[in-house]
Amino acid sequence: MAQKITRDQIAAAFDVASDVFDQKLSKARGVQTLYENHGVNEVSAGDLIEIFRSMMAGKVFQRTLSIDGTRYFLQRIEEERPTHLANAVVSNVKHLDYYQRLSTGHPQPSKRKLVNEWVVRLSEPRNLNELEAAFWQAVDSALTDSPDVRRGRLQRSRKLPEKIKVVTEAYVRNPDVVAEALHRARGQCGRCKQPAPFSRKKDGFPYLEVHHIQLLKDGGEDTVENAIALCPNCHRELHFGAAGRVSSSE
Asked: How far out from the chain centre does Cα 108 lie?
């Protein structure tokens, strides 16, 4: 890629290439946008769009991308398309291997060092809460797209999910608190006051879930006074619904 690409042009290229990948723009229109609005020559614009497409698919790309461009693309992909990050890293490894084999190529040690850092990051356990937040951010973003755009991505997406290692922080809860809260409830949800929706398969007891009124992660105590037995629907609503709280008087 002969043209020296500025950081602003790299950012614009990522945005345009992302829209082309999502079929919001044709490649020709994307090239025209980068050329007319951002001063990227047409050859470089086409290369950047194809590099992004290759990263999304985990395929080798042949045109070179600067270290700054590589770093920027991987960072944005991690933030906005975390499910494609592994593919993007693999794509860069394949590119480096391809380029080194060329008679006119060379090892690109600085870029190899950068890409290897991303390889190590992928191999390390990742924070489950961060992954969960990134996933729902991606869901919210997908909901803003048209059904046609989503279906286009689905047709090109991998059928089997990627596997990664995660690390998470867990609280060791007192089983007596859970047992006492369930006993106190006598099979009735402490919020909607309806009977448990079904019985547990293993013992026939009413199925309720014990919720901490002040969450443990917010400094709440693991005590009977801070616990309430809820049906699954009320429990999910308190965590994800607009209400979001239950008072100790309920």
From this structure: 30
DSSP for 204-244, please give it: --B--EEEESS-GGGT---SGGGEEEE-HHHHHHHHHSSS-
* CA atoms within 13 Å, Cβ hemisphere of 185: 31
Q: How far apart are CA 238 and CA 4, in angstroms?
A: 52
Q: In this predicted structure, what is the pLDDT of residue 74?
A: 97
Element (H, E) at 126: strand 126-127
Helices (H), the chain: 7-21, 27-38, 42-57, 67-80, 85-101, 109-123, 128-144, 147-156, 175-185, 232-240
pTM: 0.57
What is the rounded average pLDDT for all residues in the chain?
87
Cα dihedral 130, 135, 140, 143, rounded to 10, equals 170
Q: Answer yes or no: is pLDDT of 133 > 90.
A: no
Taking 70 as the threshold, does the pLDDT of residue 249 lie above it? no
At 165 the pLDDT is 67
Q: How far apart are CA 106 and CA 101, in angstroms?
A: 8
